[in-house]
Design a protein that fits this description.
Layout (H helix, E strand, L loop, with lengths): L27 H20 L5 H16 L15 E4 L5 H11 L2 E3 L5 E5 L3 H5 L29 H20 L11 E6 H5 L1 H12 L5 E7 L16 H8 L2 E5 L5 H13 L5 E6 L22 H11 L11 H32 L1 H11 L17 E6 H12 L6 E5 L3 H4 L8 E2 L8 E3 L4 H13 L3 E7 L7 H10 L4 E5 L17 H6 L5 E3 L4 H13 L5 E4 L4 E4 L16 E4 L7 E5 L4 H13 L4 E5 L3 H5 L3 H7 L7 E8 L4 H4 L4 E5 L8 H8 L3 H15 L1
Parallel strand pairs: 1-4, 4-5, 5-7, 6-7, 9-11, 9-12, 10-11, 12-13, 13-15, 14-15, 18-19, 18-20, 20-21
Antiparallel strand pairs: 2-3, 8-16, 17-19
Helix pairs in contact: 1-2, 1-3, 1-10, 1-11, 2-3, 2-9, 2-11, 5-7, 5-15, 7-15, 11-12, 13-18, 15-16, 19-24
Bound molecules: thiamine diphosphate and magnesium ion.
């Protein structure tokens, strides 16, 4: 991709030069900076909770970035080519709310329509941290217009930003044409000591350096303070050197008050075309507080009237004023942001109108991805699989599905954490996504599962349909971003293969036990464990149809027979989460429930019991999440309440199965870690054999009588 980013038109020399620590230069910029500070203090004091110190310290930095660099139109905060601003240190949320308020960002609803309300009004700021307010304790994507991603768990915003920067480059490489620079935006992050101590940010920074992302700028608030005290307690590495080793450009700004130096640092970022940039900004947390400034006491909690009055005095602010927003400060700030962003956005729209003429197909694709849709017809590409007693591993089936739909779903972009030969997540004959091929589609996340999840979330926030891949046991390494995908309602697809003791010889460290229960416990996450190749195809269809839910697709390492769907019910039943796969003539005496690789085993038990005169029903239950969405009548049709003899078979922990098997039912599940041995031996040891399932089924029937 040629770098088409607009040159910085504002030379830093045009900035009002504040001398460090002189906070009363009388300029309107200074007024706006102090407005941010006083709003943060007043809101935290009123809420009696929150974090005032960092918004106060970073106000000059954020003000400079927004008013002089950020390409952002407050009237169209969903303009696709806007620069992204991520507040990774989400505890400093009042900084973002103050910026959104002062910039006059307009609210848009879930359908992208303007509501006529501001994104954050002054009243909203007065409702900081209150029920149903737009100013939650930490910034929440979807709840507040202008919040680009939910942050709060430190490090995640950093991870997301790498995904956003990757997506921006991918979009540019895929859709930009001569004379049509549709996508060339930058991604800015404010991050704190905590962010940069977290492993996820290190993983993300490492791959960002590898990918040489020139459109990524992290601004590190080096204030030497965390909650427990000075950073010396636990953090004394040279962060800039670490980032240089990652392949980043680094610039240090000695004083956050020195906006000229900071603007120069941003100029360095804009001029750097071959690597990401880290700007280390040294700041004083809670600057202006008489006793708390520069101490961990400025990090959180209401500072108290005395501290606030002292700080306001030091800014030359009326000490008794609360929630004071000088009109001229707001006007100057919003005009500065809109003055640059609005013409750029209008120009973009004019370009897009011409693009639609010149490249109608591409324009249609851009429209579709903006709406979170895949191109029409992608479902037609979904494969079906012939009955096959030997069958294939569901990971193999998944790989075939990915490859079948790849050309129909061009912005399905993903990859694995160095396991694609095992997870089968690569699109064959497609280029890798690398520094020189930013439009490639096979991501090599490296062995960085945590960042992989976080990066995928960032890609989803920037219009792509990302998927990830690793062994299911390592879903633990990804839990924070999976949870955040669910909170943000991002339709990320997390592929997990090697889903049970079926892993075999690799042993207990690689055999998931509690992981299914742990994933099923995340609200809003659709965890699907398909029972054969056709269920795997339908699972992908469901996942790609989701617009507001992430999906965990759980696949086996080992082959699973492909069921004869002429003899048994259609795999489309998966769309309801669970369905009657095989039934008895007349009322069943027992319901056998299976998921994943245990489904064919349960079907075999059903057939064996039938031969012995026992009437059983088989329920395939690949997604509890989807099944719970069905109504009572459907539930009762699958699980008639009076049939109390029920047996669930799953090579995972028992936790949660009582919901379906009830008091009189039983499970054949795992109650210990697995073992290192060939699969057949493991199945014998842990009771996943035809004979044992039939025996337990008979016991259950006996007990339920
Ligand atoms: C993953 C994670 N762990 C812990 C916390 C709780 N927490 C919030 S802020 C913070 C550290 C504060 O230090 P720093 O990141 O330097 O922010 P500053 O106080 O300088 O703004 C911690 C531990 C968190 N939000 N996320
Ligand atoms: Mg700090």
């Amino acid at each position: 991709m040629t770098d088409t980013r607009a040159p910085n038109t504002l030379a830093s020399a045009t900035l009002t030069p504040y001398a460090p620590h002189v906070r009363e230069d009388g300029s309107v910029q200074r007024l706006a900076i102090d407005t941010i500070r006083t709003l943060a203090m007043d809101a935290v004091q009123k809420a009696n909770s929150g974090h005032p110190g960092t918004p106060m310290a970073l106000a000059p930095v954020a003000h400079t970035l927004w008013s002089r660099y950020l390409r952002y139109d407050p009237a169209t905060p969903d303009w696709p080519n806007r620069d992204r601003f991520v507040l990774s240190c989400g505890h400093a949320s009042m900084l973002l709310y103050a910026l959104l308020h002062l910039a006059g960002v307009e609210e848009i609803d879930a359908d992208g329509k303007k509501t006529g309300a501001p994104a954050v009004s002054l009243d909203d700021i007065k409702q900081f941290r209150q029920m149903d307010s737009k100013t939650a304790g930490h910034p929440e994507y979807r709840m507040t217009t202008g919040v680009e991603t939910t942050t709060g768990p430190l490090g995640q915003g950093c991870g997301n930003s790498v995904g956003m920067a990757i997506a921006a480059r991918w979009l540019g490489a895929t859709f930009n044409r001569d004379g049509f620079d549709l996508f060339d935006h930058d991604v800015y992050v404010l991050c704190s000591d905590g962010d940069l101590m977290e492993g996820v940010a290190s993983e993300a920074a490492s791959i960002a350096g590898h990918l040489k992302l020139p459109n990524l700028c992290w601004i590190y608030d080096s204030n030497h303070i965390t909650i427990e005290g000075e950073t010396d307690l636990a953090f004394d590495e040279d962060v800039a050197k670490r980032f240089e080793a990652y392949g980043w450009q680094t610039v240090t700004v000695e004083d956050a008050e020195d906006v000229v130096a900071f603007a120069k640092a941003l100029d360095v970022f804009k001029a750097t075309q071959d690597k990401p940039t880290l700007i280390v900004v040294k700041s004083v947390i809670g600057i202006g507080f008489p006793t708390r400034a520069g101490t961990h006491k400025a990090h959180s909690d209401a500072p108290g009237e005395e501290e606030i009055r002292g700080a306001k005095k030091s800014y030359g602010w009326p000490e008794d004023a609360q929630f004071l927003v000088p009109e001229e400060a707001k006007a100057a700030f919003s005009e500065a942001v809109a003055g640059r962003g609005q013409p750029l956005r209008e120009e973009w729209e004019a370009t897009f109108a011409r693009y639609r003429e010149a490249h109608p197909d591409l324009a249609e694709a851009v429209e579709a991805l903006r709406q979170g849709k895949l191109p029409d017809g992608w479902q037609e590409a979904l494969p079906t699989f012939e009955p096959d007693a030997k069958g294939i591993a569901s990971r193999e089936a998944s790989g075939k599905v990915i490859n079948a739909i790849a050309t129909k779903a061009p912005w399905l972009v993903g990859g694995a954490a160095d396991l694609s030969p095992s997870t089968k997540t690569d699109v064959k004959d497609a280029p890798s996504l690398e520094a020189q091929t930013p439009g490639g589609r096979n991501m090599h996340f490296g062995i960085r599962e945590h960042a992989m999840g976080s990066i995928a979330n960032g890609m989803a926030l920037s219009y792509l349909r990302p998927y990830t891949g690793t062994f299911m046991v390592f879903s633990d390494y990804m839990r924070p971003p999976i949870r955040l995908a669910a909170i943000m309602e991002l339709p990320v697809i997390f592929v997990f293969t090697h889903d049970s003791i079926g892993v075999g010889e690799d042993g207990p460290t690689h055999q998931p036990i509690e992981h299914l229960a742990a994933l099923r416990a995340i609200p809003g996450l659709d965890t699907i464990r398909p029972g054969d190749a056709n269920e795997a195809a339908v699972a992908w269809k469901v996942a790609l149809t989701h617009t507001h839910e992430p999906t965990a697709l759980i696949f086996s390492r080992q082959a699973i027979p492909t069921l004869d769907r002429g003899q048994y019910a259609s795999a489309d039943g998966l769309e309801k989460g669970g369905y009657v796969l095989a039934d008895s003539d007349g009322e069943p005496e027992i319901i056998l429930i299976g998921t994943g690789s245990e489904l064919p085993l349960v079907v075999a038990a059903h057939e064996k019991l039938k031969g012995e005169g026992v009437k059983s029903r088989v329920v395939s239950l690949p997604s509890w999440y989807l099944f719970e969405k069905q109504d009572r009548a459907y539930h009762d049709s699958v699980f008639p309440p009076h049939i109390r003899a029920r047996l669930a078979v799953e090579q995972g922990g028992a936790l949660g199965w009582d919901r379906y098997v009830g008091h009189d039912g039983a499970t054949v599940t795992m109650s210990t870690f697995g073992a290192s041995a060939p699969l057949a031996k493991l199945q014998e040891k842990f009771g996943f054999t035809l004979d044992n399932i039939c025996k337990v089924a008979r016991d259950v029937m006996e007990n339920a009588r």
